[in-house]
Amino acid sequence: xxxxxxxxxxxxxxxxxxxxxxxxxxxxxxxxxxxxxxxxxxxxxxxxxxxxxxxxxxxxxxxxxxxxxxxxxxxxxxxxxxxxxxxxxxxxxxxxxxxxxxxxxxxxxxxxxxxxxxxxxxxxxxxxxxxxxxxxxxxxxxxxxxxxxxxxxxxxxxxxxxxxxxxxxxxxxxxxxxx
Length: 179
Fold this sequence. Notes:
Number of domains: 2
Oligomer: single chain
Radius of gyration: 18 Å
Number of strands: 16
CATH superfamily of the largest domain: PRC-barrel domain
CATH architecture of the largest domain: Roll
CATH topology of the largest domain: SH3 type barrels
Number of helices: 5
Strand content: over 45%
């Protein structure tokens, strides 16, 4: 399990040439199928280009690098099929409101949690601001119910709201002020 923010800056290694070819700049999320569809990378040694690696072309992701099987799997962005309705860069997801279907604001997306072997999105880390995060801790919204992305908002059902994991860390928990 990794967060998309963990990937930023990871070196990209090519297995067929056994050398460094770039570093991760962002992740592309497919909100329709709820998975990572690719990585945006800074590619090249002297002259840098922005390129994309389809997630299916990734051989493996470890705790400190991404391995691509073949150099030929690195594509220009214009050749990558990016459907703006369903696919977003992770940087465009961060800060998006999460609301209950009745309109109640639950927080804002801080990060995306995914499974590194399959690319499946497991959930979202929510924030209510730095001070609230420090005092109360983070919240995690598992991806176990319907989530609709509509007009730059994530809309979840009341049942999905009940599955939010609260107080992941925070001073309240550390000082045992909350049971």
